[in-house]
Design goal:
It is built from 9 helices and no strands. By secondary structure, it is an all-alpha fold.
């Protein structure tokens, strides 16, 4: 039984990555299709491992069982994230994309998400822990978060802050503290 775990696990990783890359492609060309098929069938590494394992282990069968398992596990994972986003448990589309592993993999996108999350934390601390307006000003000045970012996130409903905090922030003209 243990000899089946290797090909099944390798297949599961390939299946997970296959679904990931299929979601990541913006344009599907013959080259990307060829690369995807090559990844699916394993290329040189899988054939080498097949030779090493010997022909009596049903390597191909367990590899493809693993590919299917990984493929559908990733689909289930992304589906679960989508449901959590629809229910409001994941507030930001950017955070959803980071969690799903698609769309926000570039460092500047991750920095933007981290900055948004830090901005939300600062606002909550200002409201809940009673940090002073001066401390808020210093904290906001340290962030690379602008008025444009704020309005864009607000319009997209990506701010994971209670509405009354946003209202307080705007009513007290604290938005002027943003760059």
């Amino acid at each position: 039984m243990i000899e089946y775990l290797g090909p099944a696990n390798l297949g599961a990783v390939v299946g997970w990555m296959l679904y990931y890359f299929m979601r990541k492609y913006k344009i599907f060309s013959p080259q990307t299709l060829g690369a995807t098929i090559t990844a699916f069938f394993g290329g040189e590494i899988v054939s080498l491992l097949h030779k090493i394992s010997g022909s009596n282990t049903n390597f191909d069968l367990w590899y493809f069982v693993g590919v299917g398992t990984g493929f559908f596990m990733y689909a289930l994972y992304v589906g679960t994230l989508s449901v959590l986003y629809a229910m409001g448990k994941i507030k930001s589309h950017q955070i959803l994309e980071v969690a799903a592993g698609c769309g926000a993999g570039i460092d500047e996108d991750l920095d933007r998400v981290e900055t948004l999350m830090e901005f939300e934390r600062v606002l909550k601390d200002w409201n809940d822990k009673g940090i002073s307006d001066e401390e808020l000003k210093i904290a906001l000045n340290d962030l690379d978060y602008s008025k444009v970012d704020y309005y864009k996130n607000k319009r997209r409903k990506e701010l994971a802050v209670r509405p009354e905090i946003i209202e307080k922030f705007e009513n007290q003209n604290m938005i002027l503290l943003l760059k």
